[in-house]
From TrEMBL:
InterPro entries: Oxoglu/Fe-dep_dioxygenase_dom, P4HA-like, Pro_4_hyd_alph, Pro_4_hyd_alph_FE2OG_OXY. GO terms for molecular function: metal ion binding; procollagen-proline 4-dioxygenase activity. Residues 1-123 form the Fe2OG dioxygenase domain. This is Fe2OG dioxygenase domain-containing protein.
């Protein structure tokens, strides 16, 4: 079942194996639908390790990594946790199909402590779960239309975060 929190704040004292933020089961797809995007906010600095890694990224081989990166981070494109930074990534393409390159995980913390907050942006609200297999929007292009609205809003958030 999907977590029903607005912002999930957690202390990361272990790694998370690579996973997708979209769902394969029908039950979670009915309850809010796929996660269109994830905003991961780093609430603490980490001395070593704790990177968020994308093992299927096309950019994984272009990112130089020295000794200050964990071995786990060297297995994909990685982002170091820095207090005050936020990472935004999409789990779906603009046409609402799932993106297998959104596979991501959390590397183990080697030194220090990692605190983060996560905000998932779903296709639909959790307050009004889907009652049918089809689209509940009145727009004839519903799957694309719903996603288009969210992508515009998320793109603005991404643009605003990059300017910080």
């Amino acid at each position: 079942m999907a977590k029903l929190c607005k912002y999930c704040i957690m202390r990361m004292d272990r790694s998370y194996e690579p996973h997708f933020d979209y769902f394969h089961d029908k039950e979670n797809q009915k309850l809010g639908g796929h996660r269109v995007a994830t905003v991961l906010m780093y609430l603490s600095d980490v001395e070593k390790g704790g990177e968020t890694v994308f093992p299927s990224s096309l950019e994984k081989d272009s990112q130089p990594k020295g000794d200050d990166w964990s071995d786990c981070a060297k297995n994909g494109y990685a982002v170091k946790p820095r207090k005050g930074d936020a990472l935004l990534f999409f789990s779906l393409h603009p046409d609402a199909t799932t993106d297998p390159r959104s596979l991501h995980g959390s590397c183990p913390v080697i030194e220090g402590e990692k605190w983060s907050a996560t905000k998932w942006i779903h296709v639909r609200s959790f307050d009004a779960p889907s009652t049918s297999e089809g689209c509940v929007d009145k727009d004839p292009n519903c799957p694309t239309g719903l996603l288009r609205v969210n992508v515009r809003r998320i793109s603005y958030i991404w643009w605003a975060l990059r300017r910080l």
